[in-house]
Amino acid sequence: MDNSYYLECCIAGSDIPQRILLNTLPITIGRGSDCSVIINTSALSRRHACIEYNHSEIILRDLNSTNGCFINHQRIAGHSAIKPGDVVHFGDIEYCLKDDQDIVDDDERTRIQMQTLPKHFSLKRKELSELIDQQLVTTFQQVITLGNGDVYGHELLGRGEHPTLGSSPFELFQIAQSLNKHVELSRLFRQRGFAQAELAGMNKPLFFNSHPEECHNPDMLLLELTRLRKLHPGLQLMFEVHEAAVTDIGAMTEIRNELNALDIGLAYDDFGSGQARLRELAEAPPDIVKFDISLVRGVGDPQSPRYKLLLSLNKLVQEMGIATLAEGVESEDDALACKEIGVNYFQGYFYGRPAPIH
């Protein structure tokens, strides 16, 4: 073969891609000890597949496996040719076929994760690049209210506008994650959101998000926020940090101090969705804690354990001088219960669904 081909997969939670080199063919793939490539997962048969070279083509051959082999999410019957860019699916693991001409800087490297990406995700590289390069995104806002129903502020929510990609930020971030462009997409949503909010004359607090990985490089994050603050000095900004991103107290303390200098508030988002980190509240205190919908939904019964838990957490957080916000309020009963508990701010479908900025 003229080129060096390989299959690449990035397992969820790992920054190091796994590669199967195809410079010596044929090879067998399966979980049996006699296979050339052993993948230890029950979804694979003992001898699952074979990859061979035949008449200038790379051939994927299914070896009568139980769960089958797939190319671009289509199950093959017997064997089929594969080419660079194709997604090859063994059991529950997806690989992308690449050649040595695909080797680029890490920032451009395709990442493929197990069971986390939408179908045909790796076929969307071109479309996602177009979305980012042409800034084909817009911003929605969701209202945040006070206890009396008056508007306190808004959360900025990014949406896609590419003609062949969905508008959902969840799906767009899944595709971006596979291409290692998730931070780039997060910045684009932020930049577009601030610009649209200023153009619309929004003068109340604006809650904006980040990708959790951005907090792992606080210097880069703060440099970008400094630039945006200079572009939009009149906006009232509240930076939301997901609970999962608050892993390094030293980094969060640095971010907290720099945000103060930029006149940007700090909110801990989705608090209680996992293990609430009370130490961070003490050592890197935010201005606002947003209670996750899992704590809020169904809180309407004052005798329920959920009500008592939210009552205790709300009291604890407020006694530390931190305001509280209930997100995901969808019913009148839950809204009334959160008011009785003494939550400061409210957000959810009961008060308003996300809507375009005008």
From TrEMBL:
Domain FHA: 27-76
Regions crossing the membrane: none
InterPro entries: Cyclic-di-GMP_PDE-like, EAL_dom, EAL_sf, FHA_dom, SMAD_FHA_dom_sf
Pfam families recorded: EAL (PF00563), FHA (PF00498)
Gene3D superfamilies the record matches: 2.60.200.20, EAL domain (3.20.20.450)
Residue span(s) of domain EAL: 120-358
SUPFAM superfamilies tied to this protein: EAL domain-like, SMAD/FHA domain
MF terms (GO), sorted A to Z: cyclic-guanylate-specific phosphodiesterase activity
Signal peptide: none
Name of the protein this chain belongs to: Putative signaling protein
Native species: Zhongshania aliphaticivorans
